[in-house]
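User: Structure tokens for both sequences below?

Assistant:
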Amino acid sequence: MVSWLVLLPLACALLEEQRVDPVEVNWAGVVLADLPSEGATEELTDGNVEFLDEDGEPLVLSDGSAATATQPWPDSPGWWQVRVPVDVEVTVRVAGAEDADPALATMVWRGRTPTGRAYWMQGALFTRELGWLDDFLASVSATLPGTEVVPLADGAVAHLWGEPLDPEAWAGADIAVVDGEGAEATVLRYAVEDDGTLVEATDRVDLFLAVNLAPGPVTLSVTAADGRAFSTTWPARGGDLLSAIYAALPAE
């Protein structure tokens, strides 16, 4: 699986550590409560960040304990750190506190853990404001005649939100989403105009969505026009927003 969590390389001083082939490494970075707006950056300081395996179970360290994210710096509560096994499939669940105002969605990311001590780039892990998200998805439901988008706050379904890393490479791609009950979902595809207007995707795919997905293993399968393909599965729970942001096709 192609990892969509963007990492920052460390300085040469860490090369000696890398040579010993560690079994577990520290992984850290800033987690955002929402994407920056007009230059402002809102960090997730009160909530939960879980590092799980591809089946949604806790990552287990060599001592038998679960990989647990912490906020080690009181003066920088948006900075999260976790010790993880190296180079394994990972599911990252980012959630705000239950009493957060505004309420935040639980956003679920997929990728692989690093092979050495690393940092994810700011903006690589975030969630979204739940009210904004539900309003946006309701606004695009007009393209699904007879379909009412179920609010995530109901906890009954999951939605998938994708933004390809290379929108032009996804032109004409076959994008399929199968939900936790084995049903194939309708996938909405959009291009974004310069003024921010969403239009039907033709020569590029900036955004793709699948809504009202039954919880369980939700699988995204993509085959590009040039034959490149990948598949990713999220262990979805009711109320989850599944993130296929930064989705990338394999190298040619």
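Moving on to the next sequence.
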Amino acid sequence: MKISTKGEYGIRAMIELSLRYGEGYVQSAQIAEARAIPENYLYQLLITLRKAGLIRSRRGPKGGHMLARPPAHIHMEEVVVALEGPLAPVTCVEDEEYSDCQFHSTCPVRQVWARITDATRDILRETSFEALVQVEQTSRARVGEQV
């Protein structure tokens, strides 16, 4: 699996919103500047994240974006799937596609792809945005940056 710019920028935006959790709505310009994301592109990602139920958005002078849940309750799997689609590296591993493959009962590598998909899903499910913020804060403290 390769994460596209869409996924990378979306994860960056979610980390920024996680870092600012509890501060209220954050304007997209602030997110874009803090995470080096083109603002027009960020706007599209935020719409996708809102539709997936991961963030809330509000228009107006006091508007912006915020996480829909605490960072400890949002995991990378949700964000990656919302932005990138299914985690499976091949379609035959996706449940709804399984029966469409003419080789599904004899394919020697399907089980390997399924194991890779399961391992990836497990790692992403275990990784909360709270944990990512903690790693970032520790890293920044080590190099003397201000968060």
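User: Anything stand out in the second?

Assistant: The first helix runs from residue 5 to 19.
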